[in-house]
Amino acid sequence: MQPPEQIQGHCDLDYLQAVQASSILACIFSILGIFVFVAQLFTLEKGKRFTISGVFQFLACLCIMIAASIYTDRFHLDEQDGWYGHCFILAWISFALTLISSITYFVLRKKTA
So where does this one cross the membrane (predicted)? Predict the structure, then answer.
């Protein structure tokens, strides 16, 4: 049986990898959303243009939310001062901006139909 210190370190590593994987997926979905947006401008008719890019932005939003939530829950259990750092704040700001971006894509789809 492993000592509790090694088990705790292993669990932290698993959570850190989950945060990193979710962050990378968010970046990939955002980049795909941009490329799909540009491709849809020239290929699809007006009523269907922004649906797929809005879905990619929404998936990126969910990945950012998952990463920030895991990071908050697992890595700041003993936080007494209430300060998580600049990257934590930027993660939640990027969550809000990608959510607004995905909603904007869906609203644009309705207005151009």
Answer: 23-43, 50-71, 83-108
